[in-house]
Write a structure and sequence with these properties.
With about 425 residues, this protein is α/β, with parallel strands linked by helices. It is built from twelve helices and 17 strands. Helix content is about 35%, strand content about 15%.
Length: about 425
Amino acid sequence: MLTQSDLAISKLGEPRHDSPLVFDDVRTRFLSDSSRVLHEIDYCDGDDIVPLGFERAGARRRVFFDASKSKAAIVTCGGLCPGLNNVVRNLYYHLHSCYGVPSILGIRFGYSGLNPKEGFPPIELTPESVEHIHHQGGTILGTSRGPQEPKVMIDFLVEQGVNMLFCIGGDGTQKGAHALAEEVRKRGLEIAIVGIPKTIDNDIQYCYRSFGFVTAVSEAEKVIDCAHVEAKSVPGGIGLVKLMGREAGFIAAAATIASGEVNFALIPEVPFELEGKHGLLGKLERRLAARNHAVIVVAEGAGQHLLNRHGEEFDKSGNRKLSDIGMFLKEQITRHFGAKHQPASVKYFDPSYNIRSVPADAADSLLCEQLARNAVHAAMCGKTDMFVGSWHNHTVHVPLPISVGQIKRIDPESEMWTTVLAITGQDKW
């Protein structure tokens, strides 16, 4: 169980400079470190409430670093996600234009760029180099998977004179950020390590919504609607859409709700079977008999227990490698209905790489700016070993030790999943 001490944010030291924003022409609202956002906002009358809250993100009147003598670096790691360039751009502008940090480095190809032996020297970001990047998908810095030795990376930061590092990435990236912060702590250095959670799957613990998720859901909805058109156009038409979601089915569930055209939604959190009266194939038979078409959405991590696996393998980020549940379902459905000599035409859609490569939509662009701005505020104040996250529609500081390694998943009893069941009716067939 969390305690308030678990939510305490590490600091390099006490603030020692007036914030440059004090003298800005723009009116700035300053917050104190005692400002909190409640961890839980739901309660019942008569509950014995013990307030527990995250430190609220925002500008502080006093900061730790002298901006004019500071140097920052930005790194993007892991898979692509809509909004990466938006975050890089906003980090640069808030550091350079708002605080006056004279030098901001772009670290190339993930944590590999912090290891000189990998041969990817950093680039100096400029107003010209970031001006239009928010209209592009991907990341201008490049990305990679896999860790590097923390001692080597910190040596590189010291050599470059960097005192603020912004780590944009998912759980593996934040694990790396935590390891960097630990190395900084051991050496007694003054380098702030601040994370910005990036996961298109929306599965970072203590972050209600990560950037790129809404864009992904919007793009997935378009694909589902196309699958629905295909399914309705032929006898026994089945539109099968595989979406991202290794350990959590947030994209599949949200896109199902947004579309309203899905008949079966399959996610990692809710196991399903193929055979038997209550298996997917039996339900699909009854659906086709009644309506002559069906749309199935499956998250990539769903149904892995159904596939023949010969030991688990992992990628460079430590993620479990998955077998292709989409192709497996297509083959099983085709075989099943072929053996029964029943019409079934499966149209298979796998838009994963298309979705993760598009630019951020308006909602995600706003979130990217909010997260980047508050990450800069946090780093300038010397806060470290933390990420900025969205919680109850506020931006908060989350200590990395309580989040890394903890995957956020859909609760099968949650309103989201019960809504999916209501819309699809999949339990009634």
